[in-house]
# Entry
Amino acid sequence: MSQGHFGSDDLKTDSQELLSCLITANHILHNHEILDSNGHVSVRNPNNAKSFFLAEGLPSALISKAEHVSEFQVEDGTPVNSAERIEWSERFIHSELYKRFPDVKSVVHSHCADVLPFTVSNVTLRPTTQTAGFLGNSVPVWDIARTYSSGDSSDLLVRTPRSGASLASSYSKSAFSAGTIYNTISSKITGSAPDPTTFPDYPVVLMRGHGFTVAAKGIEEAVYQAVYTKQAARTQSAAMLMEIAHGGGIVEGKVDVEGSGKIKGGKLKAAEDLHYLSAKESADAWNKFSEDMRRPWALWKREVERSPLYENELKSEVK
# Structure
């Protein structure tokens, strides 16, 4: 299983290579409309697990050099360089996930429009295609309103360690969660199940009215899961609309028919006949697609390298 840009804790990665990879991740995620002028991707420092790198202050498409990337402390989200100006208030999304789960190596936070409807409706995001098997049976939705204290801004942004810690806690669920599927797959591949205290049950959590966040084992894996979370949402939405157009819906509740032929008192519920992946299908699909994250990464990397929009000044410095 390809766990990402670095595959084990004892592998020391060249900092220039890692930052170049992080810049490329920003470009890929923008190219796939996962990130726009907002949103961010980070990577844990493989040479110092107590810090992480996050590109700051610019839209993802415009990140191009080492000076655009800052290093932060996992413990409290403060910059390693105390003199550095802090641009992103939502760095606590990253710091708290890294703090809670030592085996998380990369985090993506997105405001993707295709996913947003699932954060504000009663429709649960579920995998309908094999590329989204990592989602498991369903994807939880976290609501920041539960974390507000007196004086907090109610703008839905994760501005405090308290809110970040609450979000991170939502990645841990019961034995019947999607995490069971995810961790069972890892167990089959590596020979031992991930410790639930070091890696999350859910790889993806939706954020009410805000977006979604991916917690993964490496940059490539995080990018893959972000791209295919978007595709899963788009596919499910399109399929549900097709079902409604083809078969209409079901009227539920007490229905009173007036003399004029009008119906009152009932509610129209869309008929949901979609074929979602079973638990075994999800597990087997992720087992297959997680074997090598470098395959899709190689294509996506070439796409952004050939686009005049994206610049990566570190690329030429990496052998």
